[in-house]
Design the sequence.
């Protein structure tokens, strides 16, 4: 009886060991396959959105470069702008020169409306004049003008605004890209684009619940996306997956794909819910 009991126990032990030896690797393999499949899907989603973002970023860069070249051409070639400093004591001719400069801007914008406004600022005369601003809010209109004046007055020869388009908060979480060109004689040309007008259509994103926005260099969202906490910075280009990051916002996980817009200090970003991948 004792031997028979030992045989049974030994057989049971061998069965358990055999089951464990076979099952544990299978479970491990299944878990690895699930993890690998999930990562593969996330990488495919990230790559698909990254390609769309690169294409749209290039379109933004081309429009901004075209506008910058136009501003430089006006600064160098426009006779009315060159005459402006000598007309400070002649109000009538000064006004006519201003009107002609604005007409030059307006004619250009009939064929290219990629920016929201163009402006000229005379430091000597403390005079800011702009193309029409498509802004119904009087408060935001004043905020835009005040921001331009502040930036121009604080501008130094090596200021970043003379090198690239810079994001500036002009009114309660509203940001715009601004570029300056020094025309000499204390005259500055520039252009402004509200960032929310640059956000790409959602049909470009490979998810019905995707979100689009711009980040600053600190990884903070500076355009409105209600589901994303703009106060929580997003890690940029870190971790094992440099092409994307998984971020948790408001209890929900997103795949964040980013792409630097060249010639600016902003980063185009797409957020796709992880549950959709």
Sequence:
């Amino acid at each position: 009886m004792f031997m028979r009991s030992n045989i049974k126990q030994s057989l049971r032990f061998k069965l358990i060991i055999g089951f464990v030896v076979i099952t544990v690797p299978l479970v491990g393999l299944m878990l690895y396959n699930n993890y690998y499949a999930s990562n593969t899907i996330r990488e495919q989603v990230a790559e698909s959105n990254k390609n769309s973002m690169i294409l749209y970023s290039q379109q933004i860069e081309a429009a901004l470069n075209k506008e910058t070249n136009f501003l430089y051409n006006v600064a160098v070639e426009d006779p009315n702008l060159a005459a402006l400093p000598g007309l400070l004591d002649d109000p009538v001719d000064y006004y006519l020169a201003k009107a002609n400069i604005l007409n030059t801007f307006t004619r250009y914008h009939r064929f290219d409306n990629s920016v929201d406004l163009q402006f000229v600022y005379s430091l000597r005369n403390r005079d800011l004049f702009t193309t029409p601003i498509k802004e119904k809010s009087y408060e935001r209109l004043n905020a835009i003008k005040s921001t331009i004046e502040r930036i121009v007055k604080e501008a130094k020869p090596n200021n970043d605004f003379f090198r690239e388009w810079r994001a500036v908060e002009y009114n309660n979480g509203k940001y715009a890209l601004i570029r300056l060109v020094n025309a000499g004689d204390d005259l500055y040309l520039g252009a402004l684009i509200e960032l929310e007008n640059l956000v790409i259509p959602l049909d470009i994103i490979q998810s019905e619940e995707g979100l689009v926005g711009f980040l600053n260099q600190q990884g903070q969202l500076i355009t409105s996306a209600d589901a994303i906490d703009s106060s929580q910075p997003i890690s940029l280009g870190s971790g094992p997956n440099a092409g994307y990051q998984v971020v948790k916002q408001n209890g929900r996980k997103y795949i964040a794909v980013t792409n630097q817009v060249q010639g600016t200090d902003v980063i185009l970003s797409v957020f796709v819910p992880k549950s959709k991948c």
Notes: The chain is about 40% helix and 20% strand.
